[in-house]
Prior knowledge:
Elements: H1 2-14, H2 16-45, H3 49-57, H4 63-95, H5 99-102, H6 106-111, H7 116-156, H8 162-167, H9 170-179, H10 181-201, H11 206-228, H12 231-247, H13 269-275, H14 278-282, H15 288-310
Helix pairs in contact: 1-2, 1-7, 2-4, 2-7, 4-7, 4-9, 4-10, 7-9, 7-10, 7-15, 10-11, 10-12, 10-15, 11-12
Amino acid sequence: MKTFYWLVKREFWEHKGGFITAPIVAGIICFLLNAMLIAFGEGHYGGGDFHTNFSMAYNSDNLAQAGAVIDGLLYGVTMMVMIVTAIVVFFYSLGSLYDDRRDRSILFWKSLPLSDTSTVLSKLASAVIFAPAVAVVVGVVAGLALTIMFAGVATFHGFSLWPLLMQAHPIKVMINLVLLIPLYALWALPTVGWLMLCSAWARSKPFLWAIALPVGSGVLVGWWGLMMGNGGFTSLYWRHVVGRLLGGLTPGGWMTETSKLVHFDGDNPASALEKFDLAYHYSALASPPLYLGVLAGVAMIAAAIWFRRWRDDS
């Protein structure tokens, strides 16, 4: 276990810019963009509509909706940071087993008493668990900073910040985001498994192989479906094969498989967020495509370990 801990720590040392700096920069950019929007609003509408909007938010009938908007702000900022992390993880997975073959540092790592299985699993855990966890922490901190800024602006307009903050549920949002990481890991497994398999297998240009094979096969399936007049299979292939191989890192991607019994009211943010709970997200576990994706991901990770052990580019 201690070896696994140091292997994960090594990944964060070597990819500190992607795993830590990139989410922080994304959070700062979100904060600055919102600050600029507020400054613009204050400059142009500070004494008119801007003040009126705050007054409406503090109306007893709208207070719960205003609190839901703050909760939505936390989810939205974290989503933006997670998207940046997903892009980082995509390219990290693609180079995770290829880069040390390219620069021959694999010879050094293989000289150490480290198994290929531990090495590959440490990279997998970094990609689907620890990097998203860092993104969630950064996203929540950026969202809380934004909330405090909005509260400060409200105070500037003569409104007390506490009634609004008491209607928000930042701790519940944080717990929900943390508890969604295991579901995110399961959903992302086929994508990360495919990218790591290409990284371990390809002698050169793993990016080209990783994109060309799924997309090329999707085009062929689409052409065949067009010839046979069977567009339904083409749609399923792109959704469950191409989409899962290349798009599984998208935050919230599992929501296509969640319960269809839940209906959201777009005009009622508080009600929508109440239904947007863990039970709704984890209803995706009742979907067979999720388990098929996990099985495919495990098989591709096993293949990546095998290639890592026997691939000899010398």
